[in-house]
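Sample entry (140 residues):
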Amino acid sequence: FNRINLIYGTISDYCTEQSCPVMSGGPKYEYRWQDEHKYRKPTALSAPQYMNLLMDWIEVQINNEDIFPTNVGTPFPKNFLPVVKKILSRLFRVFVHVYIHHFDRITQMGSEAHVNTCYKHFYYFVKEFNLIDTKELEPL
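Predicted structure, serialized as tokens:
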């Protein structure tokens, strides 16, 4: 989460309402936001809006002791795996957006090796433990 958030932070000045009015991974993939509060139905948002909601939502999830217990002996909840899968599939969308729409900026900064390494670690981890459906990984 922290590394992906940092990667997005490096290009966030270039990911604006004007440059990225839709959260997407190219013309074939549009990502809509849905949550339990304000956006009960999948809603089209700009990439910056989506990213802000995503990072805030993930932070709430990972800081929730009921989902990610920190005390020794406290069991993980029954919904742990579905929550983790949702977090990881949404984080994958950040990689998709960055690679498809902002890789030129990553290259200009000379950060492509770092971003590629982060992505490879992420990809191998989710594949090894079957945490993201293969169909969701198609954009990259």
